[in-house]
Write a structure and sequence with these properties.
four-stranded antiparallel beta sheet, NADH Oxidase
């Protein structure tokens, strides 16, 4: 039977940067109660599936009854290259979406890991692989298995290794593996930079109100964004990295000029989107053709054009007023409403 250290070596051979193992269930009452309280306070906004799958969050046996252990892996997506915004006619993209869709990239790495595991083992085992595509509470399991700790920005932070700029992947398996130990780490201490720097006030220490979060609003939310929040978006057209950019645990990534080794995140990167190009996308079908294989697909045409209009307002990109005016009667009412608001705002 393979031991944990051997499996860790195989995971690193497949390109992962961190590794841990947990039991099939989350045995940390504080993490469970904090998550349940977050749901009950409606901080999950309109992500109803989080409430629907709440019990499965903490017990993988509710996903697959044969699970005995979970193998956790993480891989950095950090890119320390500096990209200056070309002009006010561009919007900023969250770093996780610069490359190809991480769901497919991490899944491919996990498949390679399983192939290696099967080659060196002389036994049969059951497994399923995931990356942000299962109800399981990845962040909580990441804490109890020693990948990192939860920061005040609510993100999983791997101190001295990856900071918070990394993707998680997991292997549900019927192998009976020895769990790794949680970190003995003090955490954020008195630092409050992420909370004080959040443009929309979405953060309190260790609590995120998704209803005010730029990442949620620009990616997941499908409706009309209230003006008081829209005017605080800055130039973020898809996602937001502010609470990660100011975090001291990520500073060493910038200082050492670290870059991910995953080719899907080092070539053909998209740090900015041309707002004029976005505003001219005529249909959902065309939108899907343009952004096929990119995380930006998640926003849909409605969301991305809505976001682009808001960023044009925040950037004072008056050269785009004619492009926005054409959308005042768009078939999508969210787009049309946002365009009418923007033309009045930019004309004022």
């Amino acid at each position: 039977m393979l031991n944990t250290e051997k499996i860790k070596f195989l995971a690193f051979e497949s390109g992962f940067d961190v590794f841990s193992v947990s039991k099939s269930f989350l045995n940390d009452e504080k993490l469970i109660s904090n998550y349940s309280r977050w749901i009950s306070n409606s901080f999950d906004a309109e992500m109803r599936y989080l409430k629907e799958y709440e019990l499965k969050k903490f017990d993988a046996k509710l996903v697959e009854p044969w699970v005995r252990s979970i193998i956790w892996v993480g891989v950095s997506y950090f890119n320390s290259s500096f990209y200056e915004r070309p002009s006010e006619e561009y919007g900023r993209v969250s770093m996780y979406a610069w490359g190809d869709d991480y769901h497919y990239v991490v899944k491919k790495m996990l498949e390679d890991f399983i192939i290696r595991l099967k080659k060196v083992g002389d036994f049969e085992f059951r497994y399923r692989i995931f990356s942000d595509s299962t109800p399981i509470y990845e962040k909580g399991f990441g804490v109890v298995s020693g990948i990192g700790f939860q920061g005040k920005n609510t993100l999983l932070i791997s101190p001295g290794k990856l900071g918070s700029f990394f993707f998680l992947g997991e292997v549900l398996t019927d192998l009976d593996l020895e769990p790794t130990e949680p970190l003995n780490f003090k955490g954020c201490g008195s630092c409050n930079l992420c909370v004080s720097s959040c443009p929309t006030g979405a953060l309190a220490p260790y609590v995120l109100d998704a209803r005010r979060c730029i990442s949620y609003l620009t990616i997941e939310y499908r409706g009309i964004i209230p003006e008081d929040l829209a005017l605080k978006f800055g130039d973020w057209v898809f996602g937001c990295d502010v609470c990660q950019q100011v975090c001291p645990f990520n500073k060493f990534l910038y200082i050492k000029k670290l870059n991910t080794m995953i080719k899907e995140f080092t070539s053909n990167v998209t740090p900015f989107l041309n707002l004029k190009d976005v505003l001219s996308i005529p249909s959902q079908n065309q939108f899907e053709k343009i952004f096929r294989g990119k995380p930006i697909l998640r926003a849909r045409r409605r969301g991305l054009i809505r976001n682009a209009i808001i960023v044009a307002v925040n950037n004072k990109a008056r050269k785009l007023i004619d492009d926005i005016t054409k959308l005042r009667n768009d078939n999508d009412e969210v787009v049309a409403h946002t365009a009418r608001w923007a033309t009045e705002f930019l004309s004022g």
